[in-house]
Amino acid sequence: MRIQSVLLTTFLILFAGTLLAQKPLYRPQVHEIDFQLGELHQLPQLNTVENMATPVMATPLNGIWYKYHFTVNHAVRAGINYRNTNFSLPNGIDNFESYDVKRRDYEAMLGYQYSAPLGRATFYTGVDALLTRSHSQENGVQSDLPGTLYAADYTQMRLGGKGFVGLKLYLSPHVSLGLEAGPYFQRALSAPNGDASYTIFNTDEFGFRSSALLSFHFKQMKKRCTCPRH
Question: Residue of 12, 32, 181, 223 with fewest CB within 10 Å of its CB?
């Protein structure tokens, strides 16, 4: 798929850049804006669907983040993300001959990041808090009532967090290309709001995400005097 190709290409560029990394040719920047070129999202285990390999969804151009680096190693970050999840279960699930799902996630995040410069590359890790509003549409053909259709249309708020590790390669003092990945956990804050007697998504969700990022960096960080105090 196109997003997988983007992520693989990004990884190869970062790996090659890390191998060739030398002494940084730039000064650290205070402000950073990240554009999420694409995301791979592994779905959590679905309700009543056992022994099924959870599908991986791809969403292109689905987020914008801001990072404030108050030191070379420490930063706070915030962002918004959009996620598109469409899949079908043609073999059906409990009480349904077939089942189709469309879900849209609108997500806000706030977190902390620790960075370790490695020449032209930078390794980083951290945690994010997540607040997500999901809009789901589910349709199925009921097996106990042949020909009877089931439809659900509902929204739900979820709260959770994610851990991440990432690597970015500076193409210039103000532009970098990065790859970030990590697990996440979210819990529904309430029952589905809308028409839904059955939902395929569980109350608790645990999954994995990876993203390719194009970043722009602004405002050089002030040098700190390392002279001994008198």
Answer: 223
DSSP string for 78-121: EEEEEEEEEEEETT-BTTEEEEEEEEEEEEEEEEEEEEEEETTE
User: 59: part of which helix (H) or strand (E)?
Assistant: strand 56-69
SS3 content of the chain, % helix, strand, coil (to 5): 10, 65, 30
Closest to 124 in 3D by CA, of 171, 169, 160, 81: 169
pLDDT digits (tens, 9 = 90+) for 161-218: 999 999 999 988 899 999 999 999 999 998 888 877 888 888 899 989 999 999 999 9
Give the Cα separation of 96 and 23 in Å (integer): 60
CB atoms within 10 A of CB 190: 10
Whether the CA torsion 134, 140, 208, 39 is positive or negative: it is negative
CA distance 194 to 91: 26
pTM, entire model? 0.82
CA 122 to chain centre: 19
Are the beta carbons of 162 and 130 closer than 8 angstroms? yes
Tell me if 202 sits within 8 A of 44, measured CB to CB: yes
**The two three-digit tokens of residue 19, written as one number:** 């191998």
**Residue for token digits 């005097």?**
225
Query: What DSSP character marks residue 23?
Result: S
Q: Which amino acid is at 24?
A: P
**Owner of token pair 């930078």:** 122
